[in-house]
Amino acid sequence: MSDSDAIRQPHVVIVGGGFGGMGCARTLGGAPVRVTVVDRNNYNLFSPLLYQVATAALSPADIAQPIRKLLKRQPLTDVMRAQVVGIDYAGKQVLLAGGKMLSYDRLVLACGSSYSYFGHDEWAGEAPAVKTIEDALRIRARLLTAYERAEVSQDPAEQAFLLSTIIVGGGPTGVEMAGAIADLTRFALKKDFRHIRADMAHITLIEAGPRLLAAFPESLAAHARKMLERHAVTVMTGEAVRGIERNSVRVGELTLKAGTLIWAAGVQASPAGRWLGVEVDRAGRLPVGADLSVTGHPDIYAIGDTAAAIGANGKPLPALAQVAKQQGLALGRALRANILQQKPMPAFHFHDRGNTAVISSGAAIYDFRGSHLSGFVGWAFWALIHVYLLTGFRNRILVATQWLWRLATFEPGARLITGTDDPHKPAPSS
Question: Is the residue at 154 inside a domain?
Answer without folding.
Answer: yes
